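How a chain folds remains the central question behind the approach discussed here. For one protein, we set the task of working out the structure tokens from the amino acid sequence alone. The sequence in question and its structure tokens are set out directly beneath this paragraph.

_____
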Amino acid sequence: MRILIVEDEVKLAHAMKRALELQKYAVDIVNNGQEGFDFAIGEEFSLIILDVMLPEIDGIDICKRIRAAGIHTPVMMLTAKGQIADKVTGLDVGADDYMVKPFSFEELFARIRALVRRPVQSNDPILSIKDLTLDPKTFIVKRDDRIIELSSKEFSLLEYLLRNKNTVLHKDQIIAHVWNYDSNVLSSTIEVHIKHLRDKIDVKGKESLIYTIRGRGYTIRE
């Protein structure tokens, strides 16, 4: 899953990036409102973490603009202000959640998990297909009750496929959701990661769960 952080406190932004990357997210950070808005409308993200007080364009205005542009990516607002009026304003312009600084990373992780689950309209955090399960909270992947060890990118790739099961995902879509903006990812990189993922989750004597749709991309389906 790919997250955009728009935060002008540079130390906080980088601390959040490091913490979220340990949670197996791909993370982009920008430090001003104009660049944040450009990223939000020009790239695909699973979540946008948006500070209210930003140079050039404030977070409230950014949220309002991206919603007006028809972008429904979940938005979490951050602010040093704790007044109810500020929270109401953020939620009224289309934010999905609100956190007051300072906050614990544990709370941030929990709220992110809740937000990224909403698009699939599921209260069950466990993603599954047939006898394969993935727990985004504990990072445990199992098939036939056998724990499968995956790299960070393999886990993110499998999670993205499972959240969009039975849907063909193009390589550009996979790159946009699993790698951050600074990554130099080639088409062959996706192929290698898919091969490694198949090698780890496939079971001898059973049909593969990940399908290559020639000329289009990949899908995971029953």
About this structure: The helical segments are 10-22, 33-42, 59-68, 84-92, 105-117, 152-163, 171-178, 187-201. Residues 1 and 160 are 7 Å apart (CA to CA). The longest helix spans residues 187-201.
